[in-house]
Amino acid sequence: MSVEKKLTAVIVDDEELARAVLREMLSHHADIEVTAECANGFEAVKAVSERKPDLLFLDIQMPKLDGFEVLELIGTDMAIVFATAYDQYALRAFEVHAVDYLLKPYGADRFEAALARARERAGEKKPAPAELRASATPPGQFADRIVVRDGANVHIIPTAKLDFVEAQDDYIAIASKGAKHLKQQTISSIETALDPKQFLRIHRSYIVNLERVAKVEPYGKDSKVAILSDGTKLPVSRAGYARLREVLDGKA
Amino acid sequence: MHPILSQFRRLGLYLLAWVPFAGLLFYLFTAFGGMTRYEAEVLVPILCLIYAFDCLTAWYTCKTTPIETSGFLRLLSTHLLAAGIMSSLWVLIARGVARLMAYSPSFSHAPEHVSHNASLLFGTGVMLYLLSVGLHYVLLALQQSQAAEQRLSAAKVLARDAELRALKTQINPHFLFNSLHSISALTSIDAGRARDMCVALADFLRLTLGMGEKTVIPLEEELALLRKYLAVEKIRFGTRLLMEEDIEPETLVFTVPPLLLQPLIENAVTHGIANLPQGGWIKLAVHRNGSEGSLNITVANNFDPEMPPRRRSGVGLVNVRQRMDARYGNRAHFEARKIDDRFEVQLGIPAETVVNA
What we know:
heterodimer; A: alpha/beta; Rossmann fold; CATH 2.40.50.1020; 2 domains; 8 helices; 15 strands; 33% strand; B: 357 residues; alpha+beta; two-stranded antiparallel sheet
């Protein structure tokens, strides 16, 4: 650990006074520079992608995007310390490889311990954040919305408005209201995050919102094609067709 | 369980009540029935003791023919028939006893005298039995009102329990933790404001603690509590929190269950203000509807419609609704709705001023 190198930090909390606590406690460390303070999830995504800090202090319940959604959208090359008044997210926080979890209100001792751990782990590489979030989703609970970053812009797509998901190499394309949003995530990981009552994997590369399926037609010799209500055609594999039949027959 | 047989004291009292009837029968037998004093002295106590117990059977006929639901003819026929049967039985017993007495030479005329008095005995028996029917109906009514009272007090205890539990859950621990964190921040920035916030938080807690014992409080007190709560939240959220009040001054004296509005305001803060980076507003309006004699309360706030509903949200609303139901039943109405980015809860409760608990 080199002491000479200055560390940069970003503080994210919607409450000014909560940011002030962190600012003050960090001010005792000459080698740490606070490069940005953010009051909501959007600002956080923007600031982190522009400034690439070494340390990130992150609140969980915030306007626009919560702390986990922010994590899902930003790089992973920093040490993350959550700071929140809620204790029920601790497990999820460690599943997304957070360095520490500060419960408000916290004292200087507790903060110093978290900072020491953060220094050690700064610069560690971690798995893609979207994968982590999927694995951290509690069983039986599914995503209400999907967050996608496009440069500094953040799109929030409620799952009800999601038409289908298409796998493209390391990315997925999320189709909603005629537009496609790219996200670095595997199709299997988003499949586990989506409610299986509403979304079905119809092909190795496709997940469809069942409410959008208008009809299924034969296509070629032994494959099928699903036609969505807006006319989009999606391939259906043999296994996908079996699953689809199961769901549709079960409904009827 | 028979109310008289179940306790020795009651049985004793009941038998004591038979002494005057025994005296009456003795008088009738000796004065009009031509019975000798000795015969009556032996016969009357035995007959009265037996019949006292016989009359207790009226309990079962009374229970199977409740006075409220059975028709007059049914009541009359049932009890007259029972009285006839019991009294005839009594006459038969009297004859049997007289026959036994006749084994003694001094009572050799007893059977004769009893037959002579049979109709007198039968008439008395019917009257006594009907008296007993009346007594048992009174006992039944007493027992029913006792049971009703017990049910009522059990319901009251349940309601109180629910209320205390509600009060406990209504003070959100995260509110406390976040406030303490703000105080911790202020100690080094602005010690004076830190102290103000400590005081506001303490005032709020003190007020909520006192409310657990009351079933209703004047609206004015609930508003005082809300203002303490908002004083704390205003330090946390600063200019992001905008509160508007539209309260008719004459409504202040009407009563509300304690902490009925606080969870609604807290909801507006945690689901509205806390999710709006530029801040938001909360509106509280209280009006009296004179013609319906009701108090109409509206709590409205704006929110970010893009935020997914948080887990456990709605618990506060359910709680408020249950407490209103428990206190006012169908005299209260509750409505919560979302219109675009506005969330609104409307309550209507009876406009009551005095504690009638």
